[in-house]
Amino acid sequence: MSVVGIDLGAYTCYEAVARDGGIETVANEYSDRCTPAYVSLTNKQRFIGVSAKQQNVTNFKNTISSFKRLIGRRYNDAHVQREKQFVPYAITEGPHGSTDILVQYMGEQQRFSPEQIVAMLLTKMKETGEAALKTKVVDVVVSVPSFYTDRERRAMLDACQISGLNCLRLMNDTTAVALAYGIYKKDLPEPNDKPRHVVFVDMGYTSLQICAVAFNKGKLKMLGVSSDPYLGGRDFDRFLVEHFAEDFKKRYNIDALSKPKALLRLATECEKLKKLMSANTQSIPLNIECFMDDKDVSGRMDRETFEGMTSGLIKQAEVAMKRILEYTKLRPDDIYSVEIVGGASRMPCIKSMVQSIFGKEPSTTLNADEAVSRGCALQCAILSPTFRVRDFSITDCQPYSLSLRWQGGIEEDCDLELFPMFSPIPASKMLTFFKKEPFQLEARYTYPNMVPFPEALVGVFKIDKVTPQANGESSKVKVKVRTNIHGIFNVSSASMVEKGDDHQEEGAEENMETDDGPKPENSDNSLASEEDSAVESKSGESNETPMQTEPDASNPEQTNQENSTGEVKKEAVAAKKKKKTIKMIDLPVESIVPQLNRSEINLLLEKENQMIMQDKLEKERADAKNAVEEYVYEIRDKLYGDYEQYTKDSEREPLSQLLNQTEDWLYDEGEDQSRQVYIDKLASLKKLGQPISDRYKEALERPAAFEALGTALQQVRKCSAQIEQKDEKYSHLEPADVEKLNKCLKQKTDWYEKHMNLQGKTPLHEPPVVTASQIHTEKQLLDSVCNPILNKPKPKPQPPPEEKKPDPKANEVKAEDQPQSPDDKAAMDLD
After folding, report:
1. CATH number given to 697-790
2. What is the Cα gyration radius of the chain?
3. Do 36 and 49 contact (CB within 8 A), yes or no?
4. Neighbouring C-beta atoms of residue 441, cutoff 10 Å
5. What is the pLDDT of residue 581?
6. E strand or H helix at 8
7. CB within 8 A of 5, min separation 6: which ones?
8. Please, which residues have CB within 8 angstroms of residue 654's CB and are 6 or more apart in sequence?
């Protein structure tokens, strides 16, 4: 399983992977770790990332950027209308009021939803990850802004599915940064000690996000988030663009705002100027050649003037930063440090604002560009079963308060706040209703004015097949609602409690169940709720099933009391022994939420795969065309240079003419041909040019091959001479081996001298008598025969036979056997 984290920004993207025991940000095919969030469409293929941004000026109507800002929103949304002024491509209304992007693709005008464009970018990031990891990428964690609403998060999950990715978690940018910061800290307070409060400020290209986090050893808890979706680096760029456009209009009488190409060029230069001013206090020049009407333009700007122009934006940032202190009730003295990330956070005015509000020098220990992607990769590693990661608990928070509304019959609609602002996620609650018929629940944002989205409705959930009890009473319906790991609200399940026939006191009516008090009467639409833990536990679910409701007759105290009085009626005893029978029935839940269904996802996935295949085919076609063009230029340059002495006049002229004709064809009717046409054209060129190339190549390689074979022959000849001189080194060789060695040496020497002489007499423009590969083959044959003989080891000498030690007992003579006198000795000799 791959571990991949993707920071999908509005302007740039970064991708981090778990590899070699750590987290690494991978580079794309341009060896750049930053992939621009651009998609450019043409009549033949798509360009994504760096190649797409390169067409931002030349193909501006079909080059799409900042599309992440449109995902999950309707066309009449004020947010979408605001975005139209920042982009040069056409944004139009789609079916049912959706937002569509209108571009020219495959020779016709086509519509793409923002989800499809995001999926294209994710496909590119997927390919980058697969190239780095050398394996298939499926499971990922993708970042989203903390201010994203439920609808935008659902749309992002749809985009992941369209690109063929399984998103394990949609992670808030701020949470990812906090994880990347905290998981490596070894000096955090113990779990039971006072937490360390750290504020993270993330100003990117289009938005500002601030969060306060409480850190303890092995865990982090999000205390609150504050954001401004309409304040980012491009807003500062916009002031520079408008300033210089007005300046050029006065001094050069040209209107840059009226020409999209000129405006894009000016925006690019203003972005560079802003970055230079962040590092310099002196005045910085701006120069653009042939800007409009063949006029060169120039201007200057310094940091002080720039900050004066953008004072309103700086004030806007100040409001968002102060809001986090208000939300979390933190004082500057309670904050341990302030970490800044994001490209626009490098501006000195933002750093000064951070220091003035929080009373802390902004810290830059994190990589401002890559911190989010690294945090996402760490979260993916935590969720992956194949990687071991340091234990670290992450408690995120719900950015907006969520409420639930249901129909209350004759009275007004009932409303309940389920998840307050900044409540932990994931989280779930169990709700109990008493209903006689199917009903529906509406999830809404409690305070719509605090949500940067025009619609307060999150979704409608219909609970079906609710029926009254057999005795006509309302049925108890238990509904589980949940905010999942992605920050998306849903009704996860619903069940109805069905009671069997049992005894009930007269006049009692069960209408509502609560956890801490008796059931009120005459309340057909009452509701009770009980909170679950962030992760559903078995113990919590077991409490949902009501236990025995009547007293147990086996109670010893009751039994003793009854025996002492002796006045127990038979009817009372029977009632005490009677038990209620309860059955839980699962109810179908129909979710009406703004999300694509499975069939729509499959259709868009199929279309995405078709576009991927088209891109692949077009790349192969372009490669085939480039191969023809490259061959034409290469051979033509060498034909009267390096190849001249290897070419006959009868070969050179026809080949030269064919090369010129092919070049003219490439820029005329051969501009747009099929891949096979280019393959055939290259084959016809190589039919004439390849023999020349081969002769040139052989002439370069053959001398070295002859030299290697000559050296090998010389070494074998030297060894043969030593054998003839009875050298001790080769004294162990058998005569048959020596004969075989000499025979091979003579054959290869004759072959070497013959072919070397023949090749020396052959002109360079004629086919060679012998090729370098043939010479190498002869050398290998020589080595295979001679080396085993020459390297044959000597047999080990036989060890001398061991001498038997004389047995001392063998020389001993018994006393009775020894001669006692000379006469006895003489007698023994005679015997």
Report:
1. 1.20.1270.10
2. 43
3. yes
4. 21
5. 67
6. strand 4-8
7. 15, 16, 17, 23, 140, 141, 142, 143, 176, 373, 374, 375, 376, 377, 378, 379, 380
8. 688
Judge if the upstream peptide bond of residue 654 is cis by omega within 30 degrees of 0: no
pLDDT per residue as tens digits for the range 736-766: 988 999 999 999 999 999 999 999 999 988 9
* Cβ-proximal residues to 218 (8 Å cutoff; 6+ apart), any chain: 188, 191, 390, 391, 392, 393
Please give the single-letter amino acid code of residue 824: D
Exposure b/e, 538-556, CB count within 10 A at least 16 = b: eebeeeeeeeeeeeebeee
Report the run of H or E that residue 81 belongs to, with start and end: helix 78-83
* pLDDT tens figures, 166-217: 999 999 999 999 999 999 999 999 999 999 999 999 999 999 999 999 999 9
Whether 207 contacts 187, CB under 8 Å? no
Question: Residue 605 — φ and ψ, nearest 5°?
Answer: -65, -40
Q: 275 and 281 in contact (C-beta within 8 Å)?
A: no
Does residue 428 contact residue 419 with C-beta atoms inside 8 Å? no
Instruction: Decide if 530 contacts 427 (C-beta within 8 A).
Output: no
Supply the DSSP symbol for 525: T
CB contact at 8 A, 254 and 292: yes
* φ and ψ of 781, to 5 deg: -65, -40
Is residue 380 a contact partner of residue 391, using CB atoms and an 8 Å limit?
no
Give the start-end residues of each E strand in 387-488. Answer: 393-397, 402-406, 414-419, 424-425, 427-435, 439-445, 457-463, 475-483
Q: In what order do the strands lie in the sheet with 219-228?
A: 335-341, 196-203, 208-216, 219-228, 393-397, 424-425
Which residues, other chains included, contact 310 with Cβ-Cβ below 8 Å and sequence gap of 6+? 236, 239, 349
- What is the crossing angle of helices 772-790 and 675-724, to 10°? 30
Q: Which residues touch 610 (CB under 8 Å, ≥6 apart)?
A: none
Please give the structure tokens belonging to residue 173: 């940018």
Q: Which two tokens stand for residue 338?
A: 């302030």
The DSSP result for 296-324, as a single string, is: EEEEEE-HHHHHHHTHHHHHHHHHHHHHH
- CA angle 573–574–576, rounded 5-degree value: 65
Whole-angstrom CA distances from 21 to 179, 370, 385, 388 are 17, 18, 15, 9
Q: CA–CA separation, 27 vs 25, rounded Å?
A: 7
- Stated as kind and residue range, the H or E segment containing 13 is strand 12-19
Query: Which tens digit of pLDDT belongs to each residue from 34-63?
Result: 999 999 999 999 999 999 999 999 999 999
Distances (CA, A) of 293 to 258, 289, 584: 13, 11, 78
What are the residue ranges spanned by the domains of the chain?
4-231+314-393, 398-501+523-537+579-596, 697-790
Residue carrying structure tokens 């995405």: 608
Task: Give, for 132, the enclosing helix (H) or strand (E).
Answer: helix 114-133
Q: How confident is the model at residue 145 (pLDDT cuts 50, 70, 90)?
A: very high
pTM: 0.80
Taking all residues of the chain, what is their mean pLDDT, rounded to a whole number? 86
CATH of domain 4-231+314-393: 3.30.420.40
Q: Tell whether the model's pLDDT for residue 248 goes beyond 90.
A: yes
Question: Which DSSP string do the residues of 719-785 spell out, in sequence order?
Answer: HHHHHHTT-GGGTT--HHHHHHHHHHHHHHHHHHHHHHHHHHHS-TTSPPSS-HHHHHHHHHHHHHH
Q: CATH topology for 398-501+523-537+579-596?
A: Substrate Binding Domain Of DNAk; Chain A, domain 1 (2.60.34)
Report the SS3 class of residue 236: helix
Give the burial class of 186: count Cβ atoms within 10 A of its Cβ; 0-12 exposed, 13-18 middle, 19 or more buried.
exposed
Distance between CA atoms of 221 and 217, rounded to whole angstroms? 11
Q: Which residue has the higher pLDDT, 103 or 795?
A: 103
